[in-house]
Each structure stands twice: as C-alpha cells, then as structure tokens.
Amino acid sequence: MNKIFKVKRNSLGQSVVCSEIATSRSKGRVIASALALAVASTVAGQAVAQVKSHYTESTTELANLSELNYERIENLEVAAKETSTDLDNLSEWFKLAYETIGDHHAALDGVGDIVSALDATDDVLIEAIAANTHTAVDNAN
Predict the structure, then answer these.
(1) What is the residue-level pLDDT of the chain in tens, covering all 141 positions?
(2) Which domain of life is it from (predicted)?
C-alpha cells in the first residue's frame, strides 16, 4: 500500500517526516482543560469555605426560638450576599480571561498570516533561483 509522507518542521525547527493526513496537536486544548480545572477547583474551595455551623447543645425555650431563627435568617442573608459578591467577581474574571484568550487568538492568527506570506515568498524565490540557474547553465553551454 502506498503512503504519502511530507516533511514538516516541528516547534523546535527540526524537520520531521509525517503522514500527509496527520493533524497537529495544539496546546490550546491542554491549556483550556487546565484553565477549566483551575477554575472548578477554586469555585469548589469557596463553596466549602462558606459553610458555617450553627449547632448548639443547649436547649432553647419557645420564646427564644423566634430570636434564634431570626439570627439564622440574618446569617443566611449575609452568606447569600457574600456568595453573590464572589460570583460577581468570578464572572468578571471569566470575562477578562475570555477577552485575553481572544486577544491571544487574534495575535496567533496574525502570526499565521505572516508565516503563510513568508512561505509564498520562499516559493517565489525558489522558482526565481531555479530559473536563473537554468539560464546560467544554458548560457554556459
């Protein structure tokens, strides 16, 4: 069975033989999964840190029960506000991270365009050198 191979350059600039249908593995997927894991672990850590214990061993009379419930409701309201603030901060962080990733993606697209232009220039130069070489050889004969 015939197979077609191409010679390409890796990230270190060394020539590598690979299949014509081979695709590259980018760092983008690895970075995205690492970012998702880091964000997920910080969110879980904050959720665990917010837990407060309201357990007491003392018995409370019925008159004090409403006062105790009022304090618990106040504690819940404070915890809800803190969680809301944390989520707002996390949302802002996500927006900034998304914008930064978009900026990096645009910059990499620009680099790709430059590399494509340089490849096209290389092809033109190679053709010109080949034509000049043939002309010089023909003139020498």
Answers:
(1) 567 778 888 778 788 887 777 666 666 666 777 777 777 766 655 555 555 555 555 555 555 777 777 788 888 888 888 888 888 888 888 888 888 888 887 777 777 778 777 777 877 888 888 888 777 667 766
(2) Bacteria
What's the chain's length in residues?
141
Total domains present in the chain: 1
Domain interval for residue 105? 84-141
Q: Would 120 be classed as within a structural domain? A: yes
Tell me the two tokens of residue 97: 């991270």
DSSP codes, 60-96:
--HHHHHHHHHHHHHHHHHHHHHHHHHHHHHHHHHHH
